[in-house]
Amino acid sequence: MNDFIKAIVDSKDVANVRDTFLQATQQAGFAHAFYAGRFSLSVPRSIMRDVPVTFNNLPADLLEQNEGLYGINRDAWVEWVLQNDGDINAAQLIAQVGADRTPSLAMAARNGMQAVQLLSLRNIVTHSVGAIMLVPGRDLDEDHLAQLWERHGADMWLLARTVHMRVATLPRDHGITTLTSRQREVLGWRSAGKTVSEIGTILGITPATVEKHMRLAREALGVDTTPQAVLKAHVTDQLFHPAYYPMTMHLPSG
């Protein structure tokens, strides 16, 4: 497990985290696994609509029959993750709330995957929530799951926390239009407290042109005000991100 943890910590992108996570869970005896994480929950949804990060190796036939498996907001397992810490198995959750309130788990059971362990990652990373499903495989019962969890539960929790924390630090798809380099410059200097006139002087353009780039940035980001544009550009890693700036460029400072 230490090698898997190190590989996740050293991962440069979400795809590598995914591959390592799925390999580690399979080695521990869980044939199928699913991860979902949502971040930037402290930012108003009117400003920031962060796209959830999800990956899994669930059977294709199950996904085809239930395309919304990891997007059913009414499903009680999602509610449980949002309101609780720790872990619970599907049988326990269904006993608490009823099968009619857990359609995705009921669907899994009808496909021979009644043994499912659910992990809540609600308080692992600030302003985020996450969930993991672990499934031993088809036609394996709760006793088999209990034995697996007894042997590997502690390792799975370490793996789950590491995955969620690493994904939180990696570039993610925010589902928005990328700003132009000039729009990033203008917003960057505005975030540093510079006026429109000062930004024009710094960049060698007219105040009217500065205003135009601010307007275009607001439109691209889908916000109403320049402060909202600055906030959204920052939380979507479009301001002061090394990928957008030459090494010789001086970023805005106080």
Defining traits:
2 domains; disordered C terminus; alpha+beta; Arc Repressor Mutant, subunit A; 11 helices; elongated; Beta-Lactamase; 254 residues
Notes on the protein architecture:
- By secondary structure, this protein is of the alpha+beta class.
- The protein has 2 domains: 2-169, 2-Layer Sandwich (Beta-Lactamase); 181-244, Orthogonal Bundle (Arc Repressor Mutant, subunit A).
- Helices cover 49% and strands 10% of the residues.
- The chain has a 5-stranded antiparallel sheet with strand order 2-1-5-4-3, with helices on both faces.
- A hairpin with an 8-residue loop joins strand 4 (117-120) and strand 5.
- Helix 9 (196-203) crosses helix 10 and helix 10 packs across helix 11.
- The longest helix has 28 residues, at 142-169.
- The termini are far apart.
- The model is unreliable at 65-72 and 243-254 (pLDDT under 50).
Outline of the structure:
This protein has 254 residues and is of the alpha+beta class. Helix content is 49%, strand content 10%. It folds into two domains: 2-169, Transcription factor LuxR-like, autoinducer-binding domain (Beta-Lactamase); 181-244, Orthogonal Bundle (Arc Repressor Mutant, subunit A), CATH 1.10.10.
CATH superfamily of the largest domain: Transcription factor LuxR-like, autoinducer-binding domain
The CATH topology name of the largest domain reads Beta-Lactamase
Report the principal-axis shape. elongated
Largest sheet: 5 strands, antiparallel
Q: Can you count the beta strands?
A: 5
Structural class: alpha+beta
How much is the average pLDDT?
A: 85
N-to-C order of helices and strands: HHEEHHEHHEEHHHHH
What is Rg? Answer: 22 Å
Uncertain runs: 65-72, 243-254
- Tell me the count of domains: 2
Strand adjacency order, main sheet: 2-1-5-4-3
Number of helices: 11
